[in-house]
Amino acid sequence: MKSMKRITSLLCCLALVFSLAACASTPAATEATDAAETTEAATTIEAATTTEATATAEPAISGTYKWIIATSVGEDTVNGLIITKFKELIEEASSGAITVELYQAGAMGGDKEIMAGLTTGSVDFVCVTTSNLCLVCPQAAVFDTPYLFDDIETARVVLPEFLPEFNPYAEACGVHILGFSDLGLRIMTSNKEVRTIDDFKGLKVRTMENKYMMQFINLLGGSATPTDFSEVYLALQQGTVDAQSNAVELTVSSKFYEPQKYLLMTNHEAHIINFLMSNDLYVSLPDDVRSLVDDCSAKAVAYGNEQTAERYTERLAFLADNLIVINYDEATLAQFKEAVQPEADAIRADVGDKLVDDLIALIDQAK
User: Fold this and answer.
1) pTM for the predicted model, two decimal places
2) For the chain, which end, N or C, has fewer CB atoms within 10 Å of the first or last residue's CB respectively?
3) Is the backbone of residue 56 left (phi > 0), alpha (psi -120 to 50) or beta?
């Protein structure tokens, strides 16, 4: 009987041990299962996140590039602001795959040198006037037609419309025009009082080395004196020249007003800025890179236009505070226009009727 009790007690103990073991193992098993499920869920989320990031990330552009941009004028000009903005935009948009080096204020030479560099490959982009574009593309003389635009607002409407027609002429000469900006209409400053066309007689006026600009001054009765931009201030100061023809912006930034006495509001020509690049480089670029260049240059030129609109009024007021302003009535301006008509005729003969007529037609539509 006692043996039976011992056996019964032993069986009860064993049952209790197995029961406790089973209870003890349940939370551990559950914990292990939960951990596995958590790890699997984390892996799934991470994979989904990676897939989503891959889908939304901008693809890398084709290759890496290092470009050089040059101007003959300083950083605090619209030319300088345009190329600085372009550098900022394209380096950011390409995530650093494109880098741009800026050489301003004639660091790579004057306009002749940087335009030559653009066509030979030592410079990739330049920002210059249409008169400097004439150095490599004779048809750009169409923009130098005197009194072509009555106001700069018309020019800003017309020039982008005219660009698709004109760009093939530039490309045939080795350059591609990315966009047009401007510095307003050109004015003159002078040491001598010029109130009538007769007052131009014998006036030595600094011009660019551009035959049409020189012809303009000579037809008015003055004496055109080509002078490198870097030498203009000294020439005015020493009396080598009596006057200069330029944009309001550059007249202020280069302090040409300091050795001068009069501001002549001739408004004879639009000071058009061209943002140019080597055509060989442009056509060699993969489609994605070329598209990026087009987009960033359009934004940079638009920024330049905004800056001109703000700066022109401010700088003109500054000149008016420092010089004696001479405005011209319609009768006097009509005399100027009549006197320089041979220049307009010469440009038409050189570039052809079609370019001139098409540009004038766009101007008429914009009025």
Assistant:
1) 0.81
2) N
3) alpha
